[in-house]
Amino acid sequence: MAYLSDILIGLQNGFEGKTKVGTSLIKNNFYDLCIKVNGGSRNSPIIFNNQEVFLKEIPYSILFNINTLIGNSSVINLLDLLEDIGKLKELNINLNKLFISKNSHIIQYQHSTEKNRNGISKYGLENNPTYRDKYNKKGIQYGQLEYTEIMKYLKGNIIEKIDSEELIMRSKKILLYQFYSFNLDIDWGDYTISSSAHCSSGFCCSLVNPQFVNNIYGVCSVYDIYPNNCNSIVECDVLIKINDFEETLCNTAVNCNWLNLDKLIKNIKINGVNILIITRCDILINLHKYMLYHKNVLKDFKNWKDFTEYIRKVINKIYCINQIVFSYSKINM
């Protein structure tokens, strides 16, 4: 067992910037396998070869000629997968390095109609019934499909179904990332909508040996961002700027608030994060407003330097962390 693993996890509510950070890690490290640990059809676009690329199901690691696995706890919308395949063909990307775990589950037609009938929002429409049927052992696994069925669903394309362990054991360096974010974790998170999947860094270790985990990257935005169905306190100045800027959130309306440093530290500690990446720093720099919550008090800072030094000081006093990186919104690949 010679592989090393890195884990990438979100520490907030789903819009931290994991996609762009993860893609940057993939580009600048020597991974030979990337695994989407869980989740369904949802992602953010990236800039690849000077054009915007948006893949719903398939991890962006496939663009960089890396073995790419849609993992055991993922759910797969075959229509979205087919759209992704079409996009990859337009980009002349070979599908030979794309794999799907035999244990991943298929989003079926009745799952979509059930959620639509119940009037749920447009994202994640089918996931909850799929997870329910998975746990009730009534769902369909990708491994149960014959290759003739796969070719029918994917219009002549075949994506190899594989035992995850087999692929992991022949890899040297692995990146695992959580599709969902930490605050949606059913056991630990302060989630505002129901969740049916564990989303801590420890969940990634259901696939790899924790003794061989090298780095745990935790990603958070420099301000908190919430789904539009969350009853959060909204800071108007920041919200206006987000509505101008955050078109990469799949045109989703979002609420936001200043960063809660206490919650962030809690999430860092539980997940064993040793490298913290704080994204979207340019938003506050352009606003010239630097605020956060600490010990239930909203603190205001005169400048960016005081703001960042305070974050470093408080985190390092409570939890030993190797590196804190302040990053920006636009990362071109």
Structural commentary:
- With 333 residues, the protein is α/β, with parallel strands linked by helices.
- The protein has two domains: 4-105 and 144-218, 3-Layer(aba) Sandwich (Adenylosuccinate Synthetase, Chain A, domain 1), CATH 3.40.440.10; 220-326, Alpha-Beta Complex (Adenylosuccinate Synthetase, Chain A, domain 3).
- It has helices at 18-28, 78-90, 109-117, 127-135, 147-153, 164-169, 201-204, 236-245, 261-271, 281-287, 304-318; strands at 4-10, 33-39, 46-48, 51-53, 67-76, 98-101, 105-106, 160-162, 173-181, 213-221, 223-227, 254-260, 275-279, 290-294, 297-301, 323-326.
- The strands form three sheets. Strands 1, 2, 5, 6, 7, 8, 9, 10, 13 and 16 form a ten-stranded parallel β-sheet that branches. Strands 11-12-14-15 form a four-stranded mixed β-sheet.
- Helix 2 links the parallel strand 5 (67-76) and strand 6.
- Helix 3 crosses helix 4.
- It is globular, with a radius of gyration of 20 Å.
The percent range for helix content is: 25-40%
Cα radius of gyration in angstroms: 20 Å
Q: Given the helix and strand composition, which structural class is it?
A: alpha/beta
Oligomeric status: single chain
Specify the CATH homologous superfamily of the largest domain.
Adenylosuccinate Synthetase, subunit A, domain 1
**CATH class annotation of the largest domain:** Alpha Beta
Find the CATH topology of the largest domain: Adenylosuccinate Synthetase, Chain A, domain 1
Using the alpha-carbon principal axes, give the shape. Answer: globular
Strand content: 25-35%
- Write the CATH architecture name of the largest domain: 3-Layer(aba) Sandwich
Kindly state the number of beta strands: 16
Query: What separation lies between the terminal Cα atoms?
Result: 32 Å
What characterizes the major β-sheet? 10 strands, parallel
Q: If you average the pLDDT, what whole number results?
A: 84
Count of domain modules: 2
Ranges where pLDDT stays below 50 over 5 or more residues in a row are 121-125, 242-250
Compressed to H and E, one letter per element, the order equals EHEEEEHEEHHHEHEHEEHEHEHEEHE
Q: What's the helix count?
A: 11
